[in-house]
């Protein structure tokens, strides 16, 4: 097998009730492993985007074997997921014969399959987790993978929700917070007060589906150095109560509220989440063996990813 450079994209997620309470009563680790594969297999093709998704399977010694594997003691779930675009006729040519007809011409119902490795870690409390997804050049599976998990949670546990954030190493975060220019601070409730819901004639319990957003920013320029030092301290100590006045609490702001700051560094603006500081993109380079189809060797990329997770140690 030849070796090739690949990348692993890191994201985090939280799993909780829609009303903001963290206790779901669901063992997400066991549920994902036992139910997600069948959910994906039964997912209809997306005819609007001409895309299909499946858990990768291989025929080994005449037996169909799933790539999905559970690592119970470590709370890992690993495997490969493929996304296929179809709907167009694809021509396969011989590049050495520029005048020849295509060697093969597909049908519209055929498609090009792109296969990617995935790694999921779910914490003991089943409320949060960490994901590493394979990237191959410009191609990745992040949007498809997150969409599938959101659909799974929405269909299987409608009272709950899963929220994704890009992950960032602590060192990168520290650089943004110490050297970046703070543009704004945004507070966001996880619901609106019942009184406001009643005035707007929302349906019973519908107030949990709405939010109030408050953004604090300077009319011109960035935050001053003294204010920035306060925000830096709040991030390092993770004390959100400092910003929550009694008037804000009346509007629904509280311990479950989302607080973010917009920071600009080297010409790039990033939104840094106060509750979970690891929300800027981190992509890691790896080298793995590839098979005859140009796909990463499952056993090797699994071990490489597990080693990387232990090195990152996000929790």
Please state roughly what percent of the residues sit in beta strands, choosing from under 5%, 5-15%, 15-25%, 25-35%, 35-45% or over 45%: 35-45%
Annotation field: number of helices: 7
Number of strands: 17
Give the number of domains.
2
The general outline is globular
Rg computed from alpha carbons, rounded to a whole number of angstroms: 23 Å
Low-pLDDT parts are none
Q: Helix-strand pattern, N to C? A: EHEEEEEEEEEEHEHEHEHHEEEH
The rounded distance between the terminal residues' Cα atoms is: 35 Å
Rounded mean pLDDT is 85
Structural class: alpha+beta
**Helix proportion range:** 10-25%
Largest sheet: 9 strands, antiparallel
Can you characterise this structure?
The protein has helices at residues 28-41, 142-156, 170-179, 194-199, 225-237, 246-250, 298-312, and strands spanning 2-17, 51-55, 57-60, 63-66, 69-71, 76-86, 91-92, 104-105, 111-122, 128-136, 139-140, 160-166, 181-188, 213-217, 258-265, 268-273, 282-290. The protein is α+β, with helices and mostly antiparallel strands and 315 residues long. The model has no long low-confidence stretch (mean pLDDT 85). The longest helix is centred in the middle third of the chain and has 15 residues, at 142-156.
Descriptive terms for the model:
nine-stranded antiparallel sheet; 7 helices; 25% helix; 2 domains; alpha+beta; 315 residues; four-stranded antiparallel sheet
Summary of the model, kept short:
The chain has seven helices and 17 strands. 22% of the residues are buried.
List the helices and strands and how they pair.
Blueprint (H helix, E strand, L loop, with lengths): L1 E16 L10 H14 L9 E5 L1 E4 L2 E4 L2 E3 L4 E11 L4 E2 L11 E2 L5 E12 L5 E9 L2 E2 L1 H15 L3 E7 L3 H10 L1 E8 L5 H6 L13 E5 L7 H13 L8 H5 L7 E8 L2 E6 L8 E9 L7 H15 L3
Antiparallel strand pairs: 1-10, 1-12, 1-17, 2-6, 3-4, 5-6, 6-9, 7-8, 9-10, 10-11, 13-14, 13-15, 15-16
């Amino acid at each position: 097998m030849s070796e090739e450079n690949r990348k692993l994209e890191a994201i985090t997620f939280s799993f909780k009730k829609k009303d903001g309470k963290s206790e779901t009563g669901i063992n997400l680790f066991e549920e994902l492993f036992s139910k997600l594969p069948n959910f994906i297999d039964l997912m209809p093709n997306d005819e609007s985007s001409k895309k299909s998704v499946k858990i990768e399977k291989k025929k080994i010694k005449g037996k169909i074997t799933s790539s999905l594997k559970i690592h119970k003691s470590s709370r890992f779930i690993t495997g490969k997921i493929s996304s296929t675009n179809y709907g167009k006729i694809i021509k396969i040519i011989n590049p050495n014969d520029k005048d020849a007809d295509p060697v093969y011409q597909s049908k519209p119902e055929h498609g090009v399959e792109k296969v990617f490795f995935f790694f999921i870690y779910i914490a003991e409390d089943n409320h949060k987790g960490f994901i590493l997804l394979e990237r191959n050049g410009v191609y990745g599976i992040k949007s498809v993978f997150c969409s599938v998990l959101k659909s799974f949670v929405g269909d299987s546990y409608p009272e709950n929700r899963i929220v994704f954030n890009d992950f960032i190493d602590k060192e990168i975060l520290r650089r943004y917070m110490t050297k970046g220019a703070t543009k704004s601070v945004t507070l966001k409730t996880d619901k609106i007060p019942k009184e406001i819901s009643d005035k707007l004639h929302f349906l019973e319990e519908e107030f949990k589906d709405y939010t109030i957003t408050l953004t604090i920013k300077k009319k011109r320029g960035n935050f001053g150095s003294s204010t920035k030092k306060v925000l830096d301290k709040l991030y390092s100590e993770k004390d959100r109560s400092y910003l929550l006045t009694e008037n804000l609490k009346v509007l629904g702001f509280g311990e479950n509220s989302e607080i973010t700051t917009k920071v600009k560094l080297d010409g790039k603006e990033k939104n840094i989440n106060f509750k979970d500081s690891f929300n800027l993109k981190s992509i890691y380079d790896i080298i793995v063996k590839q098979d005859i189809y140009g796909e990463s060797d499952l056993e090797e990329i699994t071990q490489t990813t597990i080693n990387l997770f232990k090195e990152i140690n996000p929790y």
